[in-house]
From TrEMBL:
<dbReference type="GO" id="GO:0001006">
    <property type="term" value="F:RNA polymerase III type 3 promoter sequence-specific DNA binding"/>
</dbReference>
<dbReference type="GO" id="GO:0005634">
    <property type="term" value="C:nucleus"/>
</dbReference>
<dbReference type="GO" id="GO:0001046">
    <property type="term" value="F:core promoter sequence-specific DNA binding"/>
</dbReference>
<dbReference type="InterPro" id="IPR022042">
    <property type="entry name" value="snRNA-activating_su3"/>
</dbReference>
<keyword id="KW-0805">Transcription regulation</keyword>
<dbReference type="GO" id="GO:0042795">
    <property type="term" value="P:snRNA transcription by RNA polymerase II"/>
</dbReference>
<keyword id="KW-0238">DNA-binding</keyword>
<dbReference type="GO" id="GO:0003681">
    <property type="term" value="F:bent DNA binding"/>
</dbReference>
<dbReference type="GO" id="GO:0042796">
    <property type="term" value="P:snRNA transcription by RNA polymerase III"/>
</dbReference>
<protein>
    <submittedName>
        <fullName>snRNA-activating protein complex subunit</fullName>
    </submittedName>
</protein>
<keyword id="KW-0804">Transcription</keyword>
<dbReference type="GO" id="GO:0000978">
    <property type="term" value="F:RNA polymerase II cis-regulatory region sequence-specific DNA binding"/>
</dbReference>
<keyword id="KW-0539">Nucleus</keyword>
<dbReference type="Pfam" id="PF12251">
    <property type="entry name" value="SNAPC3"/>
</dbReference>
<dbReference type="GO" id="GO:0019185">
    <property type="term" value="C:snRNA-activating protein complex"/>
</dbReference>
<comment type="similarity">
    <text>Belongs to the SNAPC3/SRD2 family.</text>
</comment>
């Protein structure tokens, strides 16, 4: 299980960061509104090289039918479906590998299933046929 050290910065209207608060390591997927002190500023969460901006535009008062436990918010109401690329060669199976700057592929990046990747890039003994490309494992977009 990976642990990400995150720091929260608040950003004023000029785009300048006004303060930095260092937090203990936590997962952004497990962050809730208890970590937010003020709703008047946009919040920037940094996770490695990724920047996640949180801006709250609209808000309403709590309703009797709403969940009154502040720790469960934000409630996810929509989960985006994952997109999967198919193999660029056989167009049948899901891609498991992606190559960039591959001289023998028509697309950049090009996606391959395991079978097509091994047929086009590896000899029968498993050694690479050529190495002037960058290879990545591919899961989903």
């Amino acid at each position: 299980m990976k642990d990400f050290s995150c720091r929260r910065q608040s950003q004023n209207n000029n785009g300048n960061f006004t303060r930095k608060v260092i937090f203990k390591a936590f997962f952004l997927s497990q962050t809730n509104f208890n970590y937010i002190d003020s709703f008047t500023e946009s919040l920037v969460y940094l996770q490695g090289d990724c920047t996640h901006t949180l801006v709250i535009r609209d808000m309403r008062l709590i309703h009797p039918d709403d969940v009154h436990n502040r720790a469960v918010y934000p409630i996810i109401t929509f989960q985006l479906k994952l997109r999967f690329q198919k193999c660029s060669v056989c167009k049948i199976f899901r891609a498991a590998k992606a190559t960039v700057d591959d001289k023998w592929t028509p697309e950049n990046p090009c996606y391959f299933c395991e079978e097509c990747f091994s047929l086009l890039h590896q000899a029968k003994d498993g050694t690479p046929l050529y190495t002037d490309f960058v290879e990545f494992d591919y899961n989903h977009d």
